[in-house]
Design brief:
Elements: H1 2-8, E1 12-22, E2 30-39, E3 48-54, H2 55-68, H3 88-107, H4 110-113, H5 116-123, H6 128-135, H7 143-152
Antiparallel strand pairs: 1-2, 2-3
Protein name: SNX11 protein
Family: Belongs to the sorting nexin family.
GO biological process, one term: vesicle organization
Length: 165
């Protein structure tokens, strides 16, 4: 009997992995992270997804969640360190862990989970302006269409291959 109850439990695993420096060596270089999501939750359109996001997009997401969550506290992001003692790798790893903890807390929260921006952030590769347009109904597709289109496009799985030049 306990087994059956466990089987129905909704589980969402979110991992922030594989930090990668983009535009390395240029003044506009930044790090992005792979966000892998695996879930059996009815809240999500796609049951597995994989996207790349940078810190700036996490900051946008947190701001949006705060705006819409009312009194529900939104988890903190790891700090935006301008002064850091230690290696860059160490900093990136600390940030990766912080971003993962942030997302783990967010997906456990029913109120935050109802925000469609979160779903687009985790399950589409739309840019911030595109996510905004989509949520406000100004995009060419609905939120679930955007997510399904991304899921079907196989980009979510082709992440391990090197991008073609």
């Amino acid at each position: 009997r306990a087994q059956a109850a466990f089987a129905r439990q909704e589980l969402t695993t979110v991992r922030v992995q594989d930090p990668r420096v983009q535009n390395e060596g240029s003044w506009n270089s930044y790090v992005d992270y792979k966000i892998f999501l695996h879930t059996n939750s009815k809240a999500f359109t796609a049951k597995t997804s994989c996207v790349r996001r940078r810190y700036r997009e996490f900051v946008w997401l947190r701001r949006q969640l705060q705006k819409n969550a009312g009194l529900v506290p939104v988890p903190e992001l790891p700090g935006k360190s301008t002064f850091f003692v230690g290696s860059t790798d160490e900093f990136i790893e600390k940030r990766r862990q912080g971003l993962q903890q942030f997302l783990e807390k967010v997906v456990q929260n029913v109120v935050l989970l109802s925000d469609s921006r979160l779903h687009l952030f985790l399950q589409s590769q739309l840019s911030v302006p595109e996510m905004e347009a989509c949520v406000q109904g100004r995009g060419t597709q609905t939120v679930s269409e955007a997510i399904l289109r991304y899921a079907m496009s196989n980009c979510g799985w082709a992440q391990e291959e090197e991008p073609r030049p």
